[in-house]
Structures are given as structure tokens and as C-alpha cells.
Amino acid sequence: MSPLVTSHYHAPTNTWSHIVADPQTNAAAIIDPVLDFDPASGRIWTEHARALLAHAGEHALRVEWILETHAHADHLTGAAWLKAELAKSGGARTGIGAGIVAVQRHFCGVFAFGADFRADGSQFDRLFADGERIALGALEIEIIATPGHTSDGITYKFGDAVFVGDTLFAPTGGTGRCDFPGADAATQYRSIRRLYDLPDETRVFLCHDYPAAGVQPVAQTTIGAEKAGNTQLRSETSEADYVAFRHKRDATLAAPRLLYPSLQVNICAGRLPAPDAADRRFLQLPVQIRD
């Protein structure tokens, strides 16, 4: 059975959020939601997440899951806010790959979260392992582990549709970088090869697109189009060539603009830091002093 998919673009972070629905029961999942954030002012708001809820309401969808493809380093997730809102009308569960535990263990030290921080993934309702299958109405969600960009990367497969996070971009955009803690280009190559084993007509829904000026962003492609035309990993690309390419390219990339704000929120399933006595919240910025 093919799911119904609507894709919602968040232009400030070039992020696609998707709503996946079972056409028989209207059960739905939201994948990779965004919380609006302006780092210059520290302002956080919920315009994008509210638009996702509005779409679900307009189409009488029953959102059961809020799913993350990985702990993003380029936007804050709207998962916690959405979960709180959906609790008013039945509730939804949050899910991410089991590799989040390794990500938490690394970054809780970066942010000096202290001994009270639980680096066990318990901030999420469900940690998914490779090969797991869960129901969404009459649909089945298959979990495909796709680490490489990060250690917690997973792909969600709903029938003929896969949601790949930052593992793959549109063919002209290539693949996700592999220089984050726990990332590995050879591992990503093998993850992408697993995806390339799917039928060519499989729909591939992207988490990001970075179009040139005047070009509309692309939300989806196909496995066949990726194998034939991905600028960084085609069907004939060898692992050695890909790893060499990724190492060379990644050495030129700057850190994502929202790296630290995103990760300290996203490894906590979207929960913001607790307020102080004056109801103020603070995000941390680790600094490196170099001569």
C-alpha cells in the first residue's frame, strides 16, 4: 500500500518536514519537524510546527508518531512542542534510531550536562533498531539503519516510500557529510548501497534541499534517479572512490550555523533547557580559544 505524503518546506533551514498518512484509517506520522529559531535574537517560535498541525487537522489525520531520522545539526526539532500539543487530542509518541545513545554520550560532555543527564535515549518514547517493523494504521513502517552521516541515522520505509534524512540529497546535491562525531564515510557508503537495493521506482523523500537562486526546492526523487544521477554516489561508484571524495570534500566544509543550539535541544527530543528562577532559558555555546 502506498502512503499519502505531504511535504512542508522550512526555507530558513532548507528543511523538508513530511506528514505520512494511511489512506484507509487516517493514522499519520510527522517526520523531521522544525522549531523556528533566530540565533541573533534568541527568539523561538512555532510557525512551521503549527502549519503541520493545521494540515493534519484540515485532513482529519490522527497523528500517532513524531519521527526523527537523526539528531539534526542544522535546525531545532519541533518534536517536543508537537507532542505537547497532540497530547490534548489523543497523543503521539516520539521515535528515533537507537544510535542516539552514542550521540548523547558524546554531546552531553560537549555541553557539560552533568551527571543528572540520562544518556540512554529515554527522552524519546521509542528507540528503533534495524529491521524493526511497526504499524501505522493499515501501513507498516520498516526501520532501515542508515548510519554514516551520524551514528543514529535511520530510514523509515512506508510501502513504496522512504524517508532518508541526510543520508541522500537530490541527485544534484549528492550525499550527507561524514565529519561529525561518530560519522564515517565507508559506513555511509554501505548504508546508501542498502537503499540502492530497493526497487528503482521507490519514492525517496528528502530532509533537505539547497536549490540555486530562483530554483524551487525538491522534496522527493526516486532510487532509480539517485543510482543514475547522484553527483557523489552513482550505482557504479566504488567504496574507495566515495570515501576519498567525502574525506576531501568534508575537509572544506564549515560547521553548520545552528550546530550547537540544534544538538543540545535535539538530543533531548526537542525539550528546551529548563528555565531559571526568572523564567529565562539559556542555550550554551562551547568556545575554543586558539592562539
Q: What would you say this structure looks like, in words?
A:
- α4 (185-196) packs across α6.
- By secondary structure, this protein is of the alpha/beta class.
- The chain has a 6-stranded mixed sheet with strand order 1-2-3-6-8-9, covered by helices on one side. The chain has a 6-stranded mixed sheet with strand order 10-11-12-13-14-15.
- The protein has helices at residues 47-58, 79-86, 100-110, 185-196, 223-229, 239-250, 259-266; strands at residues 4-10, 15-21, 27-31, 34-38, 43-45, 62-67, 76-77, 93-97, 126-128, 133-136, 139-145, 154-158, 161-163, 203-205, 220-222.
- A hairpin with a 4-residue loop joins β1 and β2.
- It has one domain (4-266): Ribonuclease Z/Hydroxyacylglutathione hydrolase-like (Metallo-beta-lactamase, Chain A).
- It is 24% helix and 23% strand.
- 42% of the residues are buried.
- It is globular.
How would you sum up this structure in a few lines?
The protein is an alpha/beta fold and 291 residues long. The protein has a single domain, classed as Metallo-beta-lactamase, Chain A. It has helices at 47-58, 79-86, 100-110, 185-196, 223-229, 239-250, 259-266, and strands at residues 4-10, 15-21, 27-31, 34-38, 43-45, 62-67, 76-77, 93-97, 126-128, 133-136, 139-145, 154-158, 161-163, 203-205, 220-222.
